[in-house]
Amino acid sequence: MATSEAVYRAVAEHDVVFRADCPSRPILDQIADKWSMMVMAVLVEPRRFNEIKRRLDGVTQRVLTQTLRRLERNGMVERRVLPTSPVGVEYSLTSLGESLREPFAHLYDWTVANAAKIQARQRDYDQRAPR
């Protein structure tokens, strides 16, 4: 049995992750949301706020600001004030943030590989679901 399977089985058997007070819940909520994953993917190199925003079609300034602050608070992203006029800020991944690159890549690859199947299932469900 693979290591991740063993972990999942142990967690499920002991209901650890399902408890409301499990410390993993807010962390998973904060790092596994759509915008956090996309920001971390964009930060292959240090980037300024507006460059990040331009690369993430559809993100609002407010949501991007909140996402960057949450990632910084969680130790995934570092914010650096640049000695420019006007003052600039750039963001980069920390070593902790870098450690998520591989798991996120697996999740992204899985998503792309299965997107058509999932969309077909959604269409099937929507056609038979009562309205």
TrEMBL record:
Q: Where is the HTH hxlR-type domain?
A: 22-119
Gene3D superfamilies, per database record: Winged helix-like DNA-binding domain superfamily/Winged helix DNA-binding domain (1.10.10.10)
Give UniProt keywords alphabetically. DNA-binding, Transcription, Transcription regulation
Q: Carries keyword Transcription?
A: yes
Question: Which InterPro entries does the UniProt entry name for this protein?
Answer: HTH_HxlR, WH-like_DNA-bd_sf, WH_DNA-bd_sf
Chain segments annotated as transmembrane: none
Q: Pfam families attached here?
A: HxlR
Q: What is this protein's record name?
A: Winged helix-turn-helix transcriptional regulator
Q: Which organism is it from?
A: Streptomyces longisporoflavus
